[in-house]
Amino acid sequence: MISLRKFIAALVLTSCLLFTSCSQQAPSRFDGAQQDSTSKGATAVVSKSQSGSAFNRYFPDSADGYQRVYSQEKKGFAEAKLNQDGKEIAILSISDTVNNPSATDKYQSSSSKINGYPAVSQGSSGTAVLVNDRYQVKIRSKDSSFGESDREAWIKRFDLRGLSKLN
């Protein structure tokens, strides 16, 4: 009787494996994106993009009761938080637009400039400049007390001239 039970268990197990391995699943809506993003030669960041660490020296230093705290760094991008009295009031960032060339389009029609660089407002809480037709320096307010004039003043604290010489 035990050998019959073993035989039936083996038969059921084999049948389950056979049926599950032969059944086809409909392709997921994510399968195409997965295949494209992992195919040979696919890159999310352009190889000639600057490393994020190359941008750190161009950020403004902590001053006047404000603390700059680096928060993110990756190829083509660096970000720091601007804190005052322990509260995050703004996000400072530099990005290499070689990864997203259409990001420079909004600067083409800009009549506003900060330190000679084309500037744009990005919604009610963002201000950005384009340096050397490549590097976007952006400040986003996280607190209503940090307004447009504050963002412009802090953009001027970046070493924009030095950034413009970065190859």
Protein model, in words:
The chain has 167 residues and is an alpha+beta fold. It has five helices and seven strands. It has a seven-stranded antiparallel sheet. The longest helix is centred in the first third of the chain and has 21 residues. The radius of gyration is 26 Å and the shape is elongated.
Largest sheet: 7 strands, antiparallel
Give the uncertain stretches in residue-range form: 33-43
Strands, count: 7
SSE class: alpha+beta
Averaged pLDDT: 86
For the record, give the distance between the C-alpha atoms at the N and C termini, rounded to a whole number: 80 Å
C-alpha Rg, in Å? 26 Å
Q: What coarse outline follows from CA principal-axis ratios? A: elongated
Work out the helicity level: 25-40%
Determine the number of helices (DSSP H or I, runs of at least 4 residues). 5
Taken in chain order, the helices and strands follow as HHEEEHEEEEHH
What is the spatial order of strands in the main beta sheet? 1-2-3-7-6-5-4
- Tally of separate domains: 2
Percent of residues in beta strands? 25-35%
